[in-house]
Amino acid sequence: MRGDCTNVKLTKIFGANVFNDAVMKERLPKETYKALKKTIDDSEPLNKHVAEVVASAMKDWAIEKGATHYTHWFQPMTGKTAEKHDSFISLTEDGKAIMEFSGKELVKGEPDASSFPSGGLRATFEARGYTAWDCTSPAFLKEDEAGVTLCIPTAFCSYNGEALDKKTPLLRSMATISDQAMRILKLFGSDASRVVTTVGAEQEYFLVDKRFYQERKDLIFTGRTLFGAMPPKGQEMEDHYFGSIKERIAAFMKELDCELWKLGVSSKTKHNEVAPAQHELAPIFATANIATDHNQLTMETLTKIANRHGLVCLLHEKPFAGVNGSGKHNNWSISTDTGQNLLNPGKTPHENAQFLVFLAAVIAAVDEYAPLLRLSAANAGNDHRLGANEAPPAIISIFLGDQLTDILDQIEAGELTASKKASRFGVGVSTLPNFRMDVTDRNRTSPFAFTGNKFEFRMPPSSGSVAGPNIMLNTIVAEALRKIADELEAAEDFDAAVNDVVTRLIKEHRKVIFNGNGYSDEWVEEAERRGLPNIHTTVDAIDYLVKPEYIELFENHGVFSKVECESRVEILFEEYAKTINIEALTMLQMAKREVLPASINYATKMATSINTIKSAVGAANVSVQASILSNVSDLIAEVQEAVTKLEECVSKAQNSEEAKEQANLFKDEVIPAMEALRTPVDQLEGVVAEEDWPMPVYTDLLFRI
Ligand code: ADP
Ligand code: MG
Question: What is the pLDDT of residues 60-72, one digit of tens each?
Answer without folding.
Answer: 999 999 999 999 9
